[in-house]
Amino acid sequence: MTYCVMLETKKIAGLPRAVYNKRWDIIVVDGPSGSEPDQPGRMSAIYTAGLIGRIKKRSDMNPTDVIVHNVNRTVERWFAWEFLCDENLVASKGRLWHFRIKNKHQSKLFCSQNAIQIL
């Protein structure tokens, strides 16, 4: 069975505990847009996807696919590179990015220590 969650949240604390307790196969980040003052952008949703994408049981070696839609602002690209990791980017087409987070249950870091460059 495949489990998929779509993140469109303004507050990380607003998610139910059940979201953090499940091992997700696919996570889709698509909002808020960031075009209005009450829509701050996808930064918290990207960070949350990075957290819950790494929740895995020790016996589960399957990666979690994270799809981020509309990564068009510098701050959202930076959050995606920082918390979903540039080395996990497997495909991109325009403003749609696909990351694959591998099982690294021993690591306390989101990404490798390689420096990234924001263009």
What can you tell me about this protein's structure?
The protein has 119 residues and is of the alpha/beta class. It has one domain (4-101). It is built from 3 helices and 5 strands. Strand 2 (26-29), helix 2 and strand 3 (64-69) form a beta-alpha-beta unit. The radius of gyration is 14 Å and the shape is globular. The model has no long low-confidence stretch (mean pLDDT 78).
Mean pLDDT equals 78
SSE order: EHEHEHEE
Sheet with the most strands: spatial strand order? 1-2-3-5-4
Helix content: 10-25%
Largest sheet: 5 strands, mixed
Features:
single chain; alpha/beta; 119 residues; five-stranded mixed sheet
Question: How would you summarize the topology of this molecule?
Answer:
Elements: E1 4-7, H1 17-21, E2 26-29, H2 43-52, E3 64-69, H3 74-85, E4 89-93, E5 96-101
Helix pairs in contact: 2-3
Short structural description:
The protein is 23% helix and 21% strand. It has helices spanning 17-21, 43-52, 74-85, and strands spanning 4-7, 26-29, 64-69, 89-93, 96-101.
